[in-house]
């Protein structure tokens, strides 16, 4: 099983700033199949970015994904109030598909 | 817009079987996608449970495989999850989701259903 480790656990930023979230895999991810999901309180996860740099339908270009091998990054530029939530990375190349433990992005 | 909705009992007794159904709207469950389940214990992260194709092919998390049974009913456009011999550790929000055929990417999710295991 591939273990996904996210950092930091919590990120405190202000609207307008840029957030950089990291995800490291315990082994290289097949075809760089890493996705990022946003989960707002009381809501289901929402697919943001996958593959690792393709945006899902309706996701603004402020969200961008990058990385390869074992290290992946989600960057959110020009933070807006609705962006503050918990973010999960997932490797979806090798079963069992595994998630990171999450990064909480909170308003500073 | 693809929509998924979980249904089932919110309370299950220890050692019994948890049974959930996910009804899919605005999209045929017989299309070239898998249909999956993910759970989230209160205040914790996400755990992939497993997924099923409409032909009946299934993939399950090895940590749960011995207790998981999944099925599809194409006539009702829904799929189901059964998890046997539940304990308090199975208390979680259970989500159903659409999974891409060639990978584990989950692009549409239900709103989730809280299932509590308690006597």
Provide an overview of this structure:
- The complex is a heterodimer of chains A (108) and B (119).
- Chain A contains no helices and 11 strands.
- With 108 residues, chain A is an all-beta fold.
- In chain A, the strands form 2 sheets. In chain A, strands 2, 4, 5, 6, 9, 10 and 11 form a 7-stranded mixed beta sheet that branches. A 4-stranded antiparallel beta sheet of chain A has the order 1-3-8-7, with no helix packed on it.
- Chain A is globular and about 35 Å long.
- The N and C termini of chain A lie far apart (36 Å).
- In chain B, strand 5 and strand 6 (58-60) form a beta hairpin.
- The radius of gyration of chain B is 13 Å and the shape is globular.
- In chain B, strands 2, 4, 5, 6, 9, 10 and 11 form a 7-stranded mixed beta sheet that branches.
- The A-B interface holds A 1, 31, 33, 35, 37, 43-47, 50-51, 56, 88, 90-93, 95-102 and B 38, 45-48, 59, 61-63, 95, 100, 103-107, 109-112.
What's the helix and strand layout?
The complex is a heterodimer of chains A (108) and B (119).
Chain A: E1 4-7, E2 10-13, E3 19-25, E4 34-39, E5 46-50, E6 54-55, E7 63-68, E8 71-76, E9 86-91, E10 98-99, E11 103-107
Parallel strand pairs in A: 2-11
Antiparallel strand pairs in A: 1-3, 3-8, 4-5, 4-9, 5-6, 7-8, 9-10, 9-11
Chain B: E1 3-7, E2 11-12, E3 18-25, E4 33-40, E5 47-52, E6 58-60, E7 68-73, E8 78-83, E9 92-100, E10 106-109, E11 113-117
Parallel strand pairs in B: 2-11
Antiparallel strand pairs in B: 1-3, 3-8, 4-5, 4-9, 5-6, 7-8, 9-10, 9-11
Instruction: Give me the strand/helix succession of chain A.
Output: EEEEEEEEEEE
Number of strands of chain A: 11
Portion in strands of chain A:
over 45%
> Tally the helices of chain B: what do you get?
0
Mean pLDDT of chain B: 95
Helix fraction of chain A, binned, reads under 10%
Quaternary structure: heterodimer
Number of strands of chain B: 11
Instruction: Bin the strand percentage of chain B.
Output: over 45%
Largest sheet of chain B: 7 strands, mixed
| Broad shape of chain B | globular
Low-confidence stretches of chain A: none
**What low-confidence regions of chain B span 5 or more consecutive residues with pLDDT below 50?**
none
Largest interface: A-B, 26 and 20 residues
State the end-to-end CA separation of chain A.
Answer: 36 Å
From N to C, what is the helix and strand string of chain B? EEEEEEEEEEE
Number of helical elements of chain A: 0
What class, by secondary structure content of chain B?
mainly beta
Main sheet summary of chain A: 7 strands, mixed
> What's the gyration radius of chain A in Å?
13 Å
Mean pLDDT of chain A: 95
